[in-house]
Write a structure and sequence with these properties.
This protein is an alpha+beta fold. It has helices at about 35-45, 130-155, 170-175, 250-260, and strands at about 1-5, 10-15, 25-30, 45-55, 60-70, 80-90, 105-110, 120-125, 160, 165-170, 180-185, 185-190, 195-205, 210-215, 220-225, 235-240, 245-250. Helix content is about 20%, strand content about 40%. The two termini are about 45 Å apart.
């Protein structure tokens, strides 16, 4: 996730790119000792400007969008962290002439506020490259977990693990950023040749988690939730039906899960 820091002498960020911008404004974090900061930041806004250019820097098309920070500040919102969650694809960019842009310029500006010395506002922005990295990391973490499960099955009597085939993944975040669907692995766990459990990825973008895998057993349904931070080592927890606490997913809890399905 890209972080754009606005300070007293730096109130905008400009980047050139080869493709039309796709941007998700995630959140704003701020630092100020001003007792009137809430009122000031409530008046501020983020201006997104996308400009299509030729190789000679002639403007082909342009669009600008304002996002008010005050609209995302509620009675329970801490002013130091403002969640935005707005996606902009500049779908309706009006053309100045009939030429297609050779490149794009994206300018992001903090408006309607004057920062004082020592104050800063940091905007967290999701872009296509970041989403692609998250997806690749998700594939790697799921494959690594399945390798662990296969190893655990090898040490259990009459228990085997096989690959029933891939599952297509195409979540809304991927659609928004125009990323293609991908194949995700799945696994079956068998006891004496009979299927007792089907393990398949549910989704990456889960509120309060870094991905979820469903475990569909003969007698119960549970889920594996990854509590790790983005791009950090996986921290899988097993949640049984109606379980709000969860348990660290390891060899022992896996064996208990297997026993419960027999």
């Amino acid at each position: 996730m890209r972080e754009i820091k606005f300070e007293v002498e730096n109130m905008n960020d400009t980047e050139l790119r080869s493709e039309k911008p796709l941007v998700r404004l995630s959140r704003v974090e701020s630092k100020s000792n001003d007792t009137g900061w809430v009122n000031r930041i409530s008046m501020a806004s983020i201006l997104l400007e996308a400009e299509g250019l030729t190789n000679e820097d002639e403007r082909v098309c342009f669009s600008g969008m304002h996002y008010s920070l005050g609209a995302h500040i509620g009675p329970n919102t801490h002013p130091a962290v403002i969640e935005i969650g707005m996606f902009e694809n500049f779908q309706g960019v009006p053309a100045v002439n009939m030429r297609q842009p050779d490149k794009w310029q994206l300018k992001i500006t903090l408006k309607n506020i004057e920062l004082l010395a020592g104050e800063e506002v940091v905007l967290h922005v999701m872009e296509r490259e970041y989403i692609a990295r998250r997806i690749c990391n998700w594939q790697e973490r799921v494959e690594s977990l399945f390798e662990q499960i296969e190893g655990w099955c090898d040490n259990l009597e009459n228990v085997t693990c096989d690959d029933p085939g891939n599952i297509e993944m195409s979540e809304q975040m991927m659609v928004d950023f125009k990323l293609p669907a991908i194949d995700m692995p799945s696994r079956r766990v068998l006891h004496n040749g009979n299927v007792m459990m089907f393990i398949k990825p549910y989704g990456l973008w889960i509120i309060g988690a870094n991905g979820r895998i469903d475990v569909i057993g003969r007698k119960s349904i549970s889920k594996l939730v990854n509590k790790s931070d983005f791009f950090e080592a996986s921290d899988w927890h097993l949640f049984l039906r109606n379980d709000k606490v969860g348990h660290v997913f390891n060899r022992q809890t896996f064996s208990q899960l297997i026993h419960a399905q027999k």
